[in-house]
Structures are given as C-alpha cells and as structure tokens.
Specification:
Shape: globular
CATH architecture of the largest domain: 3-Layer(aba) Sandwich
Strand order of the largest sheet: 11-14-15-10-9-16-17
Helix content: 25-40%
CATH superfamily of the largest domain: Aldehyde Dehydrogenase, Chain A, domain 1
Number of domains: 2
Number of strands: 20
Structural class: alpha/beta
Bound molecules: nicotinamide-adenine-dinucleotide
Distance between the termini: 72 Å
Length: 496
C-alpha cells in the first residue's frame, strides 16, 4: 500500500475513534510541534487535547471558509504571540517532515526531484514572520499617529502542482503572521499531500495554541470549490499561485487578488561574463527540481563570440548537449501543435507527460541514453523554437546565439511574454545590466547567479514560493497579507 493510502486509512480510523470519544488522534497528533508528523508510523494517542476531528480538512468549501473564519476570530483574541507560535510550529514541522512529505509529494505528483522536494520544505524557515510587521509611528505638534498592519480575515490561497506543500507552508507562514486564517484550494493532482500537511499542522496548532481550523483545505478541490471559496463572504483576499488560467479566473472574481503568475525566465550571457560561472549557474537553476521553478532558467541567449565557450563549460559541468536530430525528436515528444488564431502559425502546447521528468527520461525521448545522474540537457535552437517560447518546465534549455546585447535583450523581452516575472544576466558590464533591467522590467532580475539567488538562496533576500507578478506585490511576505490602518490621537499628547 502507498504511504498516502496508508495515511488516509489511518486518518479515517482515527476520526471514527475520535467521534466515538476514544480520543485517538491520527498521524502525529501527540508529537511535539517540531517533531516529524510520524506519517510512516502508526497512529499515536492524542492525550485528549485535540477537540476537532477534521483538523482543517473539509469536503465542503462553505464549511471550510466558515471554519477558517472561526479560527481567525480565535487568533484575533490570542494576539501576536499566538501568530508567532504558529509560525514557529509551521517552520519546525516543515523541516522535521521534509523527507517524508517530500517523498509523498513526489509520489503523488510524479514531477520534480526528491532531493529538491525535500530541500524546498527544509528552507521554509527562511520565509519571514511576525517580525516583518513594524508599525510606523509619527509625532508632531498635532499629536501622534500610528500606522499598523492589521489582518484582512480569511485569505483564500490556490496552490500549484509544482510545489504543493512548500507553497502551502510558505503561504501559511506569511498569511498567519499577518493575523489571518487561510483556506486552500490546492491543485487536484497535488491535493492529498497538501491535505496531509494541513491535518498535521492543525493538530499541532490545536494542541499548542488552542485554535481549531486556522488553516483549512478542500480535500477534493474542483473549479466549483474554487468559485465557492472566492464568493464566500468571509474570504476577503485571494492569493493564487499558478499559470495564466488561474490568474485570469482570480481577477474575474471581484475580490482583491494577489497573483503569483507564470514566468518564462530568459538568461542573457554577454562576452564580459565568466563562462565557467555562468554555465554552473544556468545548470544549477534550470536543473532545480527538474526546472519546475517559475523563476527557473528557461532559455539562454548568448553572444555568438562566447557561445561555444559557454556550451563547453556546460558540458564540463555535467550538462549533455543534444544534436539537431535529437533536438528534433525531443521537440516532437515535448510539444503538440494546435491551430493558431485566425488560421495563423500552429501554436506549441507542452506535453504534460514530460513536465518535471528527469533529464534521462527526456534524453530517451530524444533517442539517446545518458547517465541517470544527468541534471540538464541543452541544444542550440533559434529564437522562435517552441522550447524558447513556451514555459516548458523540463530539465532542458535551448541555447540561442545572438549577435549583440541589443538583440539578446530584444529576444529576451519576446520570450518573457511581458509576464514581468524573472530575468537573468551574466555580465560584468553595468550598462548591459541596466539596459536589460529597464527593458524587461521583471519582478526578479538576477545578475551573475542562479535563479534561486533571487529568493535569498545564495543571494541576499528572503524566501517565498509565491512571487506576485501581474498584480505587483513582488516576493510575498507578511505585509502583503495585511491592511494598513492609521490610528491618530490629536493634540497635547507629546511630552516635549
Ligand atoms: P496551474 O495553473 O495548472 O494550476 C495552479 C492552480 O490553479 C491549481 O490549484 C489549479 O487547480 C488552479 N487552476 C488552474 N486553472 C484554474 C481556473 N481556471 N480556475 C480556478 N483555478 C484554476 O499551474 P501548475 O502547473 O500547478 O503550476 C505551474 C504554473 O504556476 C507555472 O505557470 C508557473 O510559472 C506558475 N507558478 C508561479 C509561481 C509564482 O510565484 N509566480 C510559483 C509557482 C508556480
């Protein structure tokens, strides 16, 4: 039996026993907050401290929203210390359960790499918490004024298949640090692992903070549950992380939406860059979790004069070059083509069966065998190739020769589709950097490093798995999920 089914059966048994008043929690219910959820082991007794039998996991969207609202009201009563405790619980549990939950997520979604699934959970500790909510105080001849960050209430969050539990965990930290409760409609193909984490998080929150259902989730999410959540009166704010369809759907709800939308990050390499460093960074970023990251390097434009050197360095660092025939075979496997608008050119559509698969699987599709440990494939293409135009989310990068930095910037702009998400340059020429930054105007712009440097991993900054691109909030943090409220006291209040 798979770990997921085993856990679901254990949870059903635990729930029945709970309802019969026998006080047996499901996985991890008696463990301390920082301990693994114990999902590989048998159920443990709860010690009778957990009152809820749902632990945040709901069939019905309206019930999930109402329960989250009740959780929000409880959190409000308990103050900032309770929020800080919840943040501490989530960070500790994400780290302690990273191995088990990473494995379970990979088993359910079948996309990405186990080592990176685990790492993405271990680094939840880098997501900022309540310490980010500094009030702004002013005083003057007319009195004192305090601007403070205050919660919205219930936030609805939509999570992607590419990083289900990491996005969920990071969103919980940000959203609860700001004093809200959260209801999730996860991706249907990554919903079991998300529900498993929500159940474990709630058990710990209930036990240690005494609030039920601060985080709720729809067990079997659908478009209807999305609509029901978005139209529920308790839901004041949406946070969607995903591709173009969900961004469009969120913006049509009439609720305020923070949208972490799609990307197709271009990389430009000029002749002032260190080719060795650029090659290593491109491999590190594009191979990460088999290129599932929205910030991941998706296509490379390189000055003709240094293109050969860059590709040699990529080979030296373990990437495998495909020849034209192999590229052709891979392209036919990786894309289907649908009729263009008004009978225009056929448009490529990514074959979902290859998304997030290992480089060795892609190589097989290209007609060659490569060692299993191969992280990335690459090949030379032109700038109109489907692998350049589409957000392929596969460990393959197209390399395009350009004659000038201007041509590279222009091609990067076209490839980025004006998502304003992420772009990367390898250069030691500040004017080239500035020209690209101005032209692409992306939310993340990384110089001389892999994409993850943009999220505080090897670069300065902090982590979030939701980078709000079309709506402009940037790398989300607790302040993103708070209202700003001004309290004013007039006259005679200063003591000097
Ligand atoms: P997806 O768009 O297929 O799904 C994302 C979420 O939206 C899922 O929960 C899905 O069920 C939901 N959804 C999709 N269409 C919907 C609709 N019409 N109405 C309501 N809900 C809908 O994306 P995915 O494959 O899970 O994730 C990959 C995509 O997400 C990529 O485009 C990637 O760039 C993007 N992404 C962006 C960020 C960011 O921070 N900007 C982070 C991760 C992923």
């Amino acid at each position: 039996m798979s770990p997921i089914n085993e856990i679901l059966i254990r949870d059903v048994v635990a729930e029945v026993l709970n309802r019969l008043g026998q006080g047996t929690g499901s996985n991890g219910s008696a463990a301390p907050s920082a301990a693994p959820c114990d999902c590989e082991n048998k159920a443990k007794p709860s010690g009778g401290s957990i009152r809820s039998s749902r632990h945040g996991v709901f069939e019905d969207a309206n019930e999930a929203c109402a329960a989250a609202h009740a959780g929000f009201l409880e959190l409000k009563k308990k103050g900032v210390a309770a929020r800080a405790k919840v943040v501490e619980i989530i960070k500790a549990m994400a780290e302690a359960n990273a191995e088990a939950w990473g494995r379970i997520e990979l088993e359910e979604t079948k996309i990405g790499r186990l080592d990176h699934k685990i790492e993405k959970l271990k680094i939840i500790k880098l997501v900022p918490g309540v310490e980010w909510l500094h009030p702004d105080g002013r005083s003057g001849d007319h009195g004192i004024t305090l601007e403070e960050y205050t919660p919205f209430g219930v936030v609805a969050a939509i999570t992607p298949s590419t990083h289900s539990v990491p996005t969920l965990s990071g969103n919980i930290v940000n959203i609860i640090a700001a004093g809200n409760a959260v209801v999730f409609n996860p991706h249907p193909s990554a919903a079991k692992c998300a529900a498993l984490a929500v159940r474990a998080y709630n058990q710990a929150i209930e036990r240690e903070v005494g609030i039920e259902n601060l985080v709720t989730i729809i067990e079997r999410p659908t478009l209807d549950s999305f609509k029901a959540i978005c139209s529920h009166e308790a839901v004041r704010l949406l946070c969607v992380t995903g591709g173009p369809a969900v961004v469009k759907a969120a913006m049509q709800t009439g609720k305020r939406a923070i949208c972490a939308g799609p990307g197709n990050p271009p990389v430009l390499v000029d002749d002032t860059a260190c080719m060795k460093r650029a090659a290593k960074a491109i491999i590190q970023g594009a191979a990460y979790d088999n290129n599932l990251l929205c910030i991941g390097e998706k296509e490379v434009f390189v000055l003709d004069s240094v293109a050969d050197e860059l590709m040699v360095e990529m080979e030296k660092n373990g990437a495998v070059r495909l020849n034209a025939a192999q590229l052709d075979r891979l392209t036919k496997e990786a894309f289907t083509f649908k009729e263009g608008h008004g009978g225009g050119c056929p448009e490529p559509v990514v074959n979902k069966a290859l998304i997030g698969k290992d480089a060795a699987v892609l190589a097989k599709a290209a007609g060659i065998n490569v060692p299993d440990k191969t992280e990335l494939l690459f090949a030379e293409t032109d700038k109109t190739h489907p692998f350049v135009k589409e957000e392929q989310m596969m460990p393959f990068v197209p390399i395009v020769r350009v004659k000038s930095v201007e041509e590279g910037i222009e091609a990067s702009l076209v490839a980025e589709h004006n998502y304003k998400h992420t772009s990367i340059i390898h250069s030691h020429d500040v004017e080239h950097m500035t020209a690209m930054a101005r032209a692409l105007d992306t939310t993340l712009f990384i110089k001389n490093g892999p994409c993850m440097a943009g999220l505080g991993l090897g670069g300065e900054g902090y982590l979030s798995y939701s980078i709000a691109t079309p709506t402009g909030e940037g790398v989300t943090n607790p302040r993103t999920f708070a209202r700003v409220r001004r309290c004013v006291m007039v006259d005679n209040l200063r003591i000097y």
